[in-house]
Amino acid sequence: MKLLMLGSGTSTGVPRIGNDWGLCDPNEPKNRRTRASIIVESAAGQRILVDTSTDLRAQFLTNGIDRIDAVFWTHDHADHVHGIDDLRPLRYGRGGPIPGYAIGETVRRLRQRFDYVFAGQYGYHTIVELDTLDRLRICAGFGIRHCQMPHGPAQTTALRFDCDGKTIGYATDFSAITREMVDLFTEVDLLVVDCLRREPHPTHACLGLALELVEATRARQAVLTHLDKSMDYATLSGEVPSHVAVGFDGLEIVL
């Protein structure tokens, strides 16, 4: 199984508009971060996209992605959703809509804001056939498990993918660790984990909280994501344990 990190940045990306790099070295390409999204891919080549980031078109072009087998949404915040229209070219040539999944409340919000994606309009095909995660156990050859995580006053969905005898967990946009999260991610082969900055934040994991989740779950490897402009790649890489990597756009990990 393979992880492809399409985007590793926070909601404003790095640099922020105004060419604001913060503490990040602008001469380090791994500090240039688009909004957070990943693809998990099986040995057979089946792909699941997680979140349609604001930068999805550029991410697909950069990584040569022209096909996916399903899409999952962790929640409906703009940086994780607003690239949804860039799924249209992936619908071309398919026999039907792309399967899409989220928890019930996220499904409701997505339908309200992007009705044309899920119902079609004016002769255009439906792009995504949207359903809830409630009873989903297998998708595109992957075993699927999930739970809800606190994201400040909101919630976001943690996802676990099992395939080819390996496991990848995805935990972005969380602000506290719950027993359900630890149970879901226990001893995963790879955990992709929210890590906005070093200082505590009301809606995101800081470095200490991210490393606490890695330790609590006994994840074999971990990758930090959703990084802001204070998280310089080289500096942060020197601070984390050997089994924890700092994520960057285009990172591929084969398990």
TrEMBL record:
**Which superkingdom does the taxonomy of this entry point to?**
Bacteria
Q: Which InterPro entries match?
A: Metallo-B-lactamas, RibonucZ/Hydroxyglut_hydro
One short Pfam name that applies is: Lactamase_B_2
Give GO MF terms, alphabetically. hydrolase activity
Q: Where are the transmembrane segments?
A: none
Describe the location of the Metallo-beta-lactamase domain by residue ranges.
47-226
Q: Which UniProt keywords apply?
A: Hydrolase
Protein name per UniProt: MBL fold metallo-hydrolase
